[in-house]
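Hi there, hope your week has been kind to you so far. Thanks so much in advance, here it is.
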Amino acid sequence: MQLVRIATTNFIDETSPGSTTKPGGRPIHKMLVSFSAAYFAGALVTDLAYWQMPDVVWERFSIWLIVAGLIMAGLATIAYVIDLASGRQIDRPAWPRVVGYALAVLLSVINAFVHSRDGYTAVVPTGLMLSGLVIVVLLLTAWVGMALANRNSVGE
């Protein structure tokens, strides 16, 4: 049996004293947007489960996931405004992502009100269609944003 002895430990990387507001090189608002999109996708999955198995627990999961996604969307908005106010470099063009994300959040707020009603008809078909529409809007927003970013990077 061989023993290894550690003389010193240093958990701080002193070679790059960069800002801690960009974990992994990504702005925090992008990370929070990813979390909210994941919560909204989870709400679609639980809506589909409720459609197939009308157990109230799936409807409760859906509303919790929608509310969690809206909370993350609020935090992402605050982080984005802070990044804009501090003059940090934001990916260009930002407007398609902002408009698409705002539309998805607005649809999710409406979806939260739809899910707050009682009964099976609170989720099926209206809540289910709204959850699906939110995901479609988020996917289109990501696709358009990436296409415009690639077009701008090729043109430079």
Observations:
- The radius of gyration is 21 Å.
